[in-house]
Amino acid sequence: MPQSIFVVALREQRFVSESLERLARALEALEFGPDTADLSSDRARIAGTIRSYLLPRAVDSSAPVTVVFAGPTGSGKSTLVNSLAGVDASRTGVIRPTTKAPLIVARHDAADRYREIGGVACDVVTADVPIFDAMVLVDAPDIDSTSTSHRVMAEALIDNADLVVFITSALRYADDVPWQILRRAISRGTPVIHVLNRVGSASAGASVDFRSRLAAAGFDDALITVPEHHLAPGGQRVPAIAVNALRERLTSLVANRDGFADEVFTRVLRATVTQVTELARAITGLQDQTAALDADLSALLTGRVSDLSLAGIGDGLYPPAPGRATRITGRRWTKRSELAPEHAARLESEVTEKLVSLVRSDVRRWLVAERETLRERNIDPGPVISGTNAAARSAAEGWIDFVTRIATEFAGAEPWLGEAVLIHAATADDLPRSVDILFGEDGPVVVERARRELVGRLEVVFELAGRLVVEGLRGRFGNLDDEELRSALAAVTSSLPPVYA
Q1: Interior CA angle at 320 toward 315 and 324, to 5°?
Q2: Which residue from 74, 300, 323, 360 has the highest number of Cβ atoms inside 10 Å of its Cβ?
Q3: Alpha carbon 474 to chain centroid, angstroms
C-alpha cells in the first residue's frame, strides 16, 4: 500500500486523534524547573506542533496547503508573494522590516479559517486566482528582525507550515540567523524550497556557493533563482516570467493536494515522535542523575555516623557510682540517685539538645565542605539544615522513649535512673560501673541495644540530609514524571507504519 494511502487510512481512524491529544496533554503536564529551561522550550514547541498542526490536519486533511514564505530582512518575500498572487497583497518598501504582521493570501471562501495560525493573528487578503485552489501563501515577518515579537511570529508560522519557501538574497544567504530557522524547519520534517532572489550578473557565483553550503549542511541543494529586477517607483511585483520557476515548483508539489498533505503530515508526525523520544530520554537522564546522587549521598552521609563522637552526651546525668560496690553500697547509691519525674524531663531535654546540636554541627561541616558543588547546582542549603534539624530532634526524642522502655523493663523500680545510666553508657567510650549495679549480667546486652538504636536513628537523619539535597536538585529540574509521556508516545507510535515506529 502506498505510504500516502496508508496514512490517509490511519488518519481516518478516531484513535489517531485521541492518541495525539493524549500525547499533548502528557507533555503539558510536565513541570519543568528553572534548570531545565531548554527542555521546557522543546516541550512547548512539540506540544504546539501537535495542537496547532497535527491535530487539525488529522481531522481535516483537505485543507489548503499552507505555504510560508520566510527569509531575512530585505530578501524580497513580499514582492514574490505579490508576484505569485498577481495582486499587490503585501506592501513592500525601503523601510525594514516591512512585514510587521503575518499576511495571508487565500481564496475568498477560505479566508476565515486563516485569521489565526499557530496562535498568531494574521491579516488576510483574498485573491481568487487558480494558484489558491490548493494553497494559501503566508508572508511571514523577517526571521532576523530586531523585534523579538517578529521573530517569534515567524517561528510559529514556520512550525505550522506544510511547505516553507526559504527566500534569501545574494547578499544575505550566508547569514547565520536564517540558517538557524532553516534547520528548525528541516528538523520538523517540513519540505523546504530554497530561493535565491535578486540574482544579477555580478552575483552569479552566489548561487553556486549557496548550493554548496546547502549540500554541506545535509539539505536539498535544489535551488530556484529569481533574477534581479528594477521596480518602478511604487511597484510591488516583478514580471510574471521571473517567478515562473517558483510557481511551477509550487503547483507541481500540490498537484495532488491530499497526497502532498498526507506525506507532510507523516513527515511531521515522524519528526515529532523523534523529538518526544529525545525529550523522554533527556528526562530519564535527569532522573538517573538524581537517583545516582541520592544513592551516593545516602552511603556517604550515613557513613559519617560511625565517625561521630558521642562522648559527653550523657555526662553529669546522675551521681557517680561507687568504685567498689557491694550489695549494700549499690543499694545506697541507687536510692540516693533516684530521679524525680521533673528531673527526668530536664534530663531528656538536655540530651535531646546535645544530640540535635551534634547532628546539626556535623551536617553544617559537610555542607561547607561541599559548598562549591551545591552552588554549581543552585541548591539552597537552608532547607537541608532546617529539615535535618527537625529530623534530629524527632530522632533524639524517639530514642529517649526507646531507652525509657528498656530501662523500665530491666531496671525494675528505678526507671528514671536506668534511663540516665543507659543514655550515659550508650554514648560513652567505656562501659560505666553503674551499668553492672543496675542491670547486672544483662548490662552489656541492654547497652548495646540502646547504642544500636541510636546509631540507626542517626543514620536515618543523615540519610535524610542527602535526600534533602537531592530534593533541592529535583526542585531545580521540576516534577518530571515521564511515565504517562512514554505511555502516550507508545500509543502514537502504534499508529505509525512499522518503518517509523
Answers
A1: 140
A2: 74
A3: 11
Pairing of strands 120-121, 123-126: unpaired
List the grid coordinates of 478.
521540576
* 301/369 Cα distance (integer angstroms): 13
- The residues, ordered by sequence, that sit 6+ positions from 275 with a Cβ below 8 Å of its Cβ are 42, 46, 187
Q: Could you tell me the three cell numbers for 412?
A: 525494675
Task: Tell me the C-alpha distance between 21 and 31, whole Å.
Answer: 18
- Pairs from 468-473 (Cβ < 8 Å, separation ≥ 24): 468/383, 468/384, 468/387, 468/388, 469/293, 469/297, 469/374, 469/379, 469/384, 470/290, 470/293, 470/294, 470/297, 471/383, 472/377, 472/379, 472/380, 472/383, 472/384, 473/290, 473/293, 473/377, 473/379
Residue 501 has pLDDT above 60, yes or no: no
Angle value at C-alpha 448, between 447 and 454, nearest 5 degrees: 90
Q: Which three cell numbers stand for residue 80?
A: 514574490
Q: Tell me, what DSSP letter sits at residue 312?
A: T
- Contact criterion met (CB below 8 Å) for 172 and 76: no
Gap between the Cα atoms of 423 and 404, Å rounded: 9
**What domains sit in the chain, N to C, each tagged with a CATH number?**
63-255 (3.40.50.300), 287-488 (no CATH)
User: Is the Cβ–Cβ distance between 439 and 410 less than 8 Å?
Assistant: yes
Residue 7 pLDDT greater than 70, yes or no: no
CA distance linking residue 31 with residue 27, whole number of Å: 9
Distances (CA, A) of 31 to 272, 320, 486: 20, 60, 15
Rounded to an integer, what is the distance from CA 136 to the centroid of its chain? 35
Q: How far apart are CA 440 and CA 133, in angstroms?
A: 102
Residue 124: strand, helix, or coil: strand
Q: To the nearest whole percent, how much of the chain has pLDDT over 70?
A: 87
State how far Cα 338 lies from the chain centre.
62
192 with 166: CB under 8 angstroms? yes
CA 462/CA 304 separation, integer angstroms: 8
DSSP lists the bridge partners of residue 223 as 194
Q: Tell me the backbone φ, ψ of residue 482, rounded to 5 degrees.
A: -100, 15
- Three-state SS string across 459-488, please? HHHHHHHHHHHHHHHHHHHEECCCHHHHHH
